[in-house]
Design a protein that fits this description.
Elements lengths: L1 H43 L6 H9 L8 E8 L5 E8 L2 E12 L4 E9 L10 E9 L16 E2 L22 E4 L24 H26 L2
Parallel strand pairs: 2-6, 4-7
Antiparallel strand pairs: 1-3, 1-5, 2-3, 3-4, 5-7
């Protein structure tokens, strides 16, 4: 009987500690997420960085998303990609993406803006791009590209090689979202993409859940433990 009591209370304490540890872990995750959001928001209004500075931050494993960036490029003509399923004011449309050659002879992708149709924009020659660094992102619901229609489900640089010069290095870690397409004469018909920080932050709810479960565990187990004494 004594061994049974020891086993019961040991299991009770261990269960309680595990639930508390999970809650405490979410406290740290909440702080990390809040700090990350603060860094990204600060980046939106910071002075633009050069391409070299952004690449150095990547090598140092530093956060780069939503950093302002300004770089000189040469457009790769007659090559556009259309990102499907993008809405503006409840209207369906596309993000239009163009590749460009950097001064280091690498290819970088520029998200030019939103349109309700597949505009055929003529881009050629040099340009100075002012925009924001964005990470490529896809999930299980992102559709596969339809290369013949130049339709992609997301900006995924390593997939977007059709139509590009062979042998050129592609910058795959990020792409650039144009700050204001209206600043460029050939892009006047495009709508600026809203640059907002939209990171899911549900850690407070997780904290309440885990600590709540810890308390509920004690409420359930303590009366059972007391009955073992009888």
């Amino acid at each position: 009987m004594i061994a049974k009591k020891i086993t019961f209370w040991s299991a009770t304490v261990i269960g309680f500690l595990i639930l508390c540890l999970l809650g405490t872990w979410q406290v740290h995750r909440l702080q990390w997420k809040n700090d990350l959001i603060a860094v990204k928001k600060k980046s939106l209004t910071a002075a633009p960085m050069s391409l070299e500075a952004v690449l150095k931050k990547i090598q140092a494993n530093q956060e780069i998303e939503f950093n302002r960036i300004q770089l000189k490029v040469n457009w790769i003509p007659n090559t556009l990609y259309y990102i499907i399923g993008r809405t503006h004011n409840s209207r369906a449309g596309y993000h239009i993406v163009a590749p460009a050659k950097t001064e280091n002879d690498e290819i970088i992708f520029i998200n030019l803006g939103w349109s309700d149709k597949k505009l055929d924009i003529s881009l050629q020659g040099p340009a100075v791009i002012d925009g924001y660094v964005r990470y490529p992102y896809k999930n299980m619901f992102t559709p596969d590209p339809i290369v013949g229609k130049r339709e992609w489900g997301a900006v995924i640089p390593q997939q977007m090689h059709p139509g590009l010069p062979a042998g050129r290095k592609i910058i795959k870690d990020f792409y650039v979202e144009l700050k204001d397409p209206s600043a460029y004469p050939t892009l006047q018909k495009l709508v600026q993409i809203p640059h907002t920080i939209d990171l899911p932050n549900r850690h407070l709810g997780y904290i309440i859940t885990w600590y709540g479960l810890a308390i509920a565990w004690l409420i359930i187990m303590i009366p059972r433990g007391k009955r073992l004494k009888k």
